[in-house]
Amino acid sequence: MCLFHCPSTNTIESNKVTSNASTSANSVDVQGLPNLPTKHPITVQSSPEQKILELMNAKRTEAGLVPLTIDNTLVQVARYKSNNMIQNNFFNHTNPDGTKWTNWLQTIGYKYTTTGEKLPVQNYFCLPFTIK
């Protein structure tokens, strides 16, 4: 699961992101969001995230589009979302408490223009994304 940032020269928002999200490569905790239960062990695998980015950018470049970049805050929220689904045994855009991952972005003070979330049926990864 990855989250990407699409740089743009005509955006109102700054491309620089500041938030309370941890950016540790192996952490799924996000400062400001509730700690999740630890019923099931998890492992963060960043190499598939990098491969997805590489493949997406190859296609974007072929199409004449600006390459995407990894946004560490969004990566942490995506990992948190995946862990939340694992620990609480659900697969849905809406969390059992009725919140969505966009509520978490608001809680940590992340500013964005447009956002979306992709939860593929293949159990490989969760791919929410935000375009700045």
Automatic annotation (TrEMBL):
Q: What is this protein called?
A: SCP domain-containing protein
Q: Which Pfam families match?
A: CAP
Q: Which SUPFAM superfamilies match?
A: PR-1-like (SSF55797)
Which InterPro entries does the entry mention? CAP_dom, CAP_sf
Q: What is the lineage of its organism?
A: Bacteria, Bacillati, Bacillota, Clostridia, Eubacteriales
Q: Which domain of life is it from?
A: Bacteria
**Which regions span the lipid bilayer?**
none
Start and end residues of each SCP domain: 53-103
